[in-house]
Protein: YafY family transcriptional regulator
Amino acid sequence: MSKATNMLSILWLLRSGGRMTAQQLADELEIHIRTVYRCIDSLCASGVPIIADPGRSGGYRILETFSESPLLFDLDEQKALVHASTFAQEAGYPFQEALVRAIDKLKRYTNEKQLTRIERHLEGLSVIQTPAGEKEQERLRVLEEAAATGITVEMTYDKGKGAGPEARPFDPYGIVHWKGSWYTVGYCGLRREMRSFRTDRIIDLQMTDRRFGRPAAFSAKEFLMNQLLPDALASETLVLVRIRGHEHALEELGRHWLFGHAQTERGEGEAVYRLGLSSLLTYVPYFLLPYGRAISVVEPYELIEKLAEVSSGLADHYQAMKDQSKSRKG
Structure:
């Protein structure tokens, strides 16, 4: 028998027969006792909680909670796993090799009908996204390991805008994937405050021998969203925004990174948001203009006025473009 078959046979015997010695396993499977030891080591390395009890009445056994848990996935669970792997790989998930091995293992231990179904579902789902490159994925692996084990890293970061790269000690509390980009959130030793950093701008990353403790109940996701959308989430600057329009347009608006977090009410043909006043007068009009006549802003007046101003400016811009093109042709 192959090693994989021996391992599954030992696993089955331990799950169904309780405690067994290495010799009993060898006799049952008609294999050498050294093969049993090697298979036990491999099972432990793969995460199976096998306990070795010493003494005359000892032997190998599996942790009771594990032996009661199912080891097989039904068809819908298999589909969900392969679809999740597709999303993860396209997002630049930093542990892709392990993910591929897991999916290959799932395929290996299915029958022909299940395998055909898995392959069909894999072909039926695609994700279009620019994934993280190899260097960024390696840094994500380091950051995830440092966050999990509480190890401070030495990070060289290029924040752009003409400034040179800066080295800083950094305590990573977590990594976050948002809008096609990866971020790391934690305590910056250079600025002596909580900060977030885009991982594609990290020039170098090295583990140190220093350790840190993450604050209880800290959420890297919430911190990042408050940094990226400060005026949209700050209670003292919120303004009521009421928009009416076609259902499809309102649904698409609800998926937008800003409006999706700010929506407070959703009725038939209408949605209500709470947004920062400064955002209404800067970038919000440019988010709404592509929806054209599919939506109408009911309130506030300041946003309607700004939309009219921006639209007028765009009309003048394209009219001038049209006039220039016509004069060149003439």
About this structure: The chain has a mean pLDDT of 86. The radius of gyration is 29 Å. DSSP finds 15 helices and eleven strands in the chain.
